[in-house]
Amino acid sequence: MLVIASGYAVDRLPIRITPLRLAAFASIVVVAWLAASYDLQPTDKLVFRDELVVLIPLAALAFLVVAARRQAAPVWRGAVFLVALLPTVIGWGLFNPLQSTEVMFRKPDTEFTRELDALAATRSDGAIAVSGVTGAVLNGVGYRSVTHVIVAPSPEVFRPYFPEASEEVLNEVFNRYAHVALTTKSHAGTPAPDLIYLPIERMAPFAATRP
């Protein structure tokens, strides 16, 4: 909606494109990049970010405005359109909606997956309890993993593993949408509204764990 509104504004409103305004916009982009690098990253290292790509067509637009002087009006409209189109081309230009999705679900052959294969082979049901991989990633590539994501509240799923838990505890801890992870603590808990920690010692009889 914002792109459509911007295109309508460019076509209908009197907009002046000048080197000074382009320089001001470029400065805002660079300052925002610096602020993001220093405030949002775990370190102060400057890392190239996708937002900086807009400076490339911006530089081309500035060149056209300077070169064409006052006759630049027919040129900058197309240039503004290209600036808006560039992120889409970069992000989705190579995407083919008819291509096979097999590669998205194919399990990679790595040292880590071979370790998980060997771990799963130690149990007849192939169940594993491995920490360090979040969400439903392991389930997505074919492992029967304790760590996963509960998309619908299902406290009854956990009753066999916590038979001593009261209905109140089952409801409080497990009756939620949540990511399921493992902990070295002796009891299940919810450190965040969408996160459930299961004690790895409790899950060890039901799934193979790493030493």
Features:
12% strand; single chain; 4-stranded mixed sheet; 47% helix; 10 helices; 3-stranded parallel sheet; 2 domains
3D architecture notes:
It is a single chain. By secondary structure, this protein is an alpha/beta fold. It folds into 2 domains: 91 residues, no CATH class; 106 residues, no CATH class. It is 47% helix and 12% strand. The protein has a 4-stranded mixed beta sheet. Helix 3 packs antiparallel against helix 4. The protein is elongated, with a radius of gyration of 27 Å.
Averaged pLDDT, please? 82
Q: Please tell me what the overall shape is.
A: elongated
Largest sheet: 4 strands, mixed
Rg on CA atoms, Å: 27 Å
The first-to-last residue Cα distance is 53 Å
**Strand line-up across the major sheet:** 3-4-6-5
Number of strands: 7
Lay out the secondary structure.
Blueprint: H1 2-12, H2 19-39, H3 55-68, H4 73-92, H5 102-105, H6 111-120, E1 127-129, H7 137-140, E2 144-145, E3 148-150, H8 155-158, H9 167-174, E4 178-183, E5 189-192, E6 195-199, H10 200-203, E7 208-209
Parallel strand pairs: 1-2, 1-7, 4-6
Antiparallel strand pairs: 3-4, 5-6
Helix pairs in contact: 1-4, 2-3, 3-4
Summarize the entry for a quick read.
This protein has 211 residues and is an alpha/beta fold. It is built from ten helices and seven strands. Helices cover 47% and strands 12% of the residues.
